[in-house]
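Quick question: what would this complex look like in 3D?
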Amino acid sequence: MRFCLNVDHVATIRNARGEVQPDPVNFALMAEQYGVDGIVVHLREDRRHINERDLRLLRELITTKLDLEMACVDDIINIACDVQPELATLVPERRQEITTESGLNVIDNLKMIKYTVARLHEAETLVSIFIEPDLNQIDAAAEINTDIIEIHTGHYANAVGEDDIFDELEKVRVAAKHAKKLGLGVNAGHGLNYINMKEFVAIEDIDEVSIGHAIIARSMYVGVEQAVKEMINIIRFAKKD
Ligand code: PXP
């Protein structure tokens, strides 16, 4: 299982003062040194955290891979086609939300998502679609030629009590297996942290996780190096079992 780090919330702290520190680009470069497999950013239409300067600098400087989360809207599609990240992850976006709240409804927005996938493929960019662990949504995503799906793990992360946690984890496991059978790559993310990752890492069909908030928050207590390495150890330790 690969581990990609989302650095959006470094930019959130920077933007709180409208100045230049802390710099998400610097944070990303440090995290690469400590072993992350890629860097994720979400260029929102309202630019509430990452901005175009961050995106273009990351494109130039990082040596692992860049995953750009984005809405299916023309302005952002044009930027993505120009920047050519290794991966573009399509997400729903609502201005009022604090963070991405659910997966994209591929079935109800088929035309726009299909158009976005095709444009990104023309720009030689792999495409992932962030969706709920719902087999019908996964089938629809496969039909419009996505390369990868990212399974929304927010319900698993928010589950309370053993039964609930087991049920949500099972939904992710079944969805990942189904996607793999269709020939898709399988990523996962949202709300994953140092505690819930311990069970999550056992899901064999997941190729990659995208984790942000938990790592940025932990780095405030223990520093970037330890925050990153603690997560890498959780993933590595599970592989040996
Ligand atoms: N994956 C997607 C599609 C997201 O939108 C986010 C949040 O930006 C994440 C993963 C990471 O979530 P978290 O910050 O809760 O780890």
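Answer marked as accepted. The chain has a mean pLDDT of 95.
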